[in-house]
Amino acid sequence: MQDMKIYHIAPALSKTGGGISEVLLNLCKVQIESGFSVSAFGGDLVYPDDRLNIKYQKWSLSAIRRLYNELKSSKSNRVVVHVHGAWTFSFVYVAILILLSHQNIKFIYQAHGLLANRTTRGKSFYKKCIAWHIYQKFIFRKSKFIISTSQREINDFAWCNPNKNKIFEIPLGISEEFFTPI
């Protein structure tokens, strides 16, 4: 049994969550089969797929407090917080977690296509600009790794001026090899 703990933060994780939910559920399944301890924070009150052995909590202030306490008390260097997306205002708490967590906690960011220029235009343009400048850029820059599911997505977030050494292209976002050496 691996001693790695992985916490997924994905408010879009829900029964009707679409792409992010599908990728995350598949990723959790592979991680559990690999022996990792997996927790997920999502948007529904109940976990959208009870066939998997995942510790699930609705993303809320009390859940954030519990996660912070777990991260604070962890002495292991095999703890990962995997952030999925980041447009909702609740991600400001992720930025605070990054700021307050000690260095052995590894934060990973996966945009799921949400940083593409085409998704930052339109009626929610100003809302997305505010999110980028208040907390999303901080999460993006402070994450140890940035996961992309394709070269197209890497090209899509080039405007964010990422550190290219932190970017890993993982088709479908699933790779046991990526998580094992962390």
Verbal overview:
The chain has 182 residues and is of the alpha/beta class. The protein is built from six helices and seven strands, in the order βαββαβαβαβαβα. Strands 3-2-1-4-5-6-7 form a seven-stranded parallel beta sheet, sandwiched between helices. Strand 1, helix 1 and strand 2 form a beta-alpha-beta unit. It is globular and about 40 Å long.
Q: What are the salient characteristics of this protein?
A:
182 residues; alpha/beta; seven-stranded parallel beta sheet; 7 strands
Topology:
Elements: E1 5-10, H1 19-33, E2 37-42, E3 55-58, H2 61-73, E4 79-84, H3 92-100, E5 105-110, H4 125-142, E6 145-148, H5 151-156, E7 167-169, H6 176-179
Parallel strand pairs: 1-2, 1-4, 2-3, 4-5, 5-6, 6-7
What sequence of helices (H) and strands (E) makes up the elements? EHEEHEHEHEHEH
What integer is the average pLDDT? 83
Instruction: Point out poorly predicted stretches.
Output: none
How much of the residues is beta strand, in percent? 15-25%
Number of discrete helical segments: 6
Radius of gyration: 15 Å
Order of adjacent strands in the largest pleated sheet: 3-2-1-4-5-6-7
Tertiary shape: globular
Class derived from helix and strand content: alpha/beta
CA distance, first residue to last residue: 15 Å
Largest sheet at a glance?
A: 7 strands, parallel
Helix content: 25-40%
